[in-house]
Specification:
alpha/beta, 2 domains, seven-stranded antiparallel β-sheet, elongated, TIM Barrel
Amino acid sequence: MKKILFPDEEEILNGLATDIYFVRTKEILEKEGLTDVQVRAEFHVYGLPEEYDFAVIAGVQEAIHLLEGKPVNVYGVREGSVVKDRWPIMIIEGPYSSFVTYETAILGILRHYSSIATKAARIKRAAGEKTVLFFGLRSIHPLLQAVADRAAFIGGVDGISGVLSKKYNKIEPTGTMPHSLMIVFGDQKRAWLAFDKHVDPKVPRIILADTFFDEREEALMAAKLLGDRLYGVRLDTPSSRRGNMRKIVEEVRWTLDIHGYKHVKIFVSGGIDEKEILELRDVVDGFGVGTAIAMPKSVDISMDIVEVYENGRWVPRTKRGKLPGARMVYECIDGTAIVTRFDEQPRCPDASTPRPLLEKLVENGKILYKEEDLSEVRKRVLSKILKP
């Protein structure tokens, strides 16, 4: 048995990361001579949490690699697309037997990535221009660290903390110190000075200011000790001792200001979600958010066969409760979105030429979609969610 359970990449690419009923379905199709039956399978958002008004789709780049070399065409939205509930986001066109065992993995990739990216986008929208850093890796299995960092960054956070993200996502991790540093030293001043002495000068000096004394006292202590070198203080007070966080922040800000340390920024972390951000964003400079992003409410994504190719034409056919026939989403210059039949060409109310959101990503097994720089994907998301 492995010391840490994880499937090999080849096992996933070979369709083994699946549910047993798909393996049995493939076997039945082969034995019944139905391996050539062509279908259009549509992936669509099929339920957002009640308070959500959009979803950010992520994981597209990984998902299509599972279909590389298969006799299929894939149409889908780009990484970081902002979509609405019930919209189609991907269509696989080809022999069902060639991709039947990949449904589980593709859905898992899209749903997990998109759930994290969507929550990150909601957090960033709430914070607005204030900094949001993702510190949620301790909430998830270590095998998912690079995935979570990537999804959160796509969703709009300003920084991530995972060391492995530098290798896998080309994102430089950020972060300063844990409480354990001060506890080991037994003296916060000694710990802060050691950090300032040994850590790369390019790393901002953001001091945890709540380990042994109250926030106001430690923040002022750090400011007097480090002076202009101090970039900011982070307040991470446990909920058991927190009280009114806004009043604590206002007290720290006032104290720093009257002692001449107006340059010192204030960051808040520890159990932060949208509610806390909305309450504090006018009095702090940034937030560290962990569990709320790492373990968000789920964006439900479903896959259904919606058309079967028979007698030279595509015939709409799906289970009850779902819309028969493949669909396409178009966007007009004025932002209007139009959902139509897959092969239908709509007209925009502003007379502009509609742009299809589902592009051809794979053609007969060849990947057409070019990898995008994550910073550009993030910018595209922010341009949608931070509109005035």
